[in-house]
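Thread: zinc ion complex, take 2
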Amino acid sequence: MVMKLPMPAADNVQLVTEIVAERANGVNATFFKGIKDEWRERVRQYIEAAGLPPTVTTWAAIQPRTTSFLNLYLSPAENSVQRPLLKSMRDNDLSICPACGESGRPNTLDHYLPKQLYPHFSVTPVNLFPMCDACQNAKLDKVGNAQTPRFFIHPYFDTFVAAQVLHLEIQAPFNAPTFTLGVVEGLSPSETNLVRTHLRELGIEKRYAKFFRNEHRRLLRSVDRLRTTGQDVQQALASFRYRAEEPSLNAWEHVFYGAVLDNPDFIDYLTNAELPSYL
Ligand SMILES: [Zn+2]
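Output below.
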């Protein structure tokens, strides 16, 4: 990912207290009352450790009660404290998926630490963020593995993704170029690895490849029109890139136009070469 999101405003620890209070007269009252302090402490630890596995651990003692936690998320009661929080996250006005950068409003919520493994964070706002279907189908319950405990960029804590972290290389022949997606230079080794595993595990490069091929065709058509109407190609492309800066420097269009403009040979081709006739 590729887009840094503002931290959710809700008080994550206080939410635990309120959820337990709402259960004071229910069938699970004793259970929730008994784990309240540890639950609060675990949410505090999550925030302190920036959601980082394996520092943030699973909770073996509550595994038999996983369903009770999942229901907080899957079927929150009408007037429950978590319901409006979940609703406001789903009603986001994002225009790209914060995990991959693809255009479109992300219409599902993802649990950064998966709810099946970490049911105690199933409604913790800082563990939830909007995501597109393609990313969610790729992420599933993955977290990391023995060598790489964490695969995914955290949308709230990994603030380095506010800068552009993706780098695209466009190679000749420019009428049918090769696209190679990588990581920008200048990040720390751990940041570089994190971006790499994030791209790999969400299958982003394959999805980008399709987008870049289509965008390349659109680019040639636009350039053809720019030339016909006597406009400055490079200047027009710079304004395309500028427009794509919002909402994230890692939005797909921005990465694409950045790669075009940073490639003098491609710019020369677009300005002077004969364009293919299949446009
Ligand atoms: Zn996505």
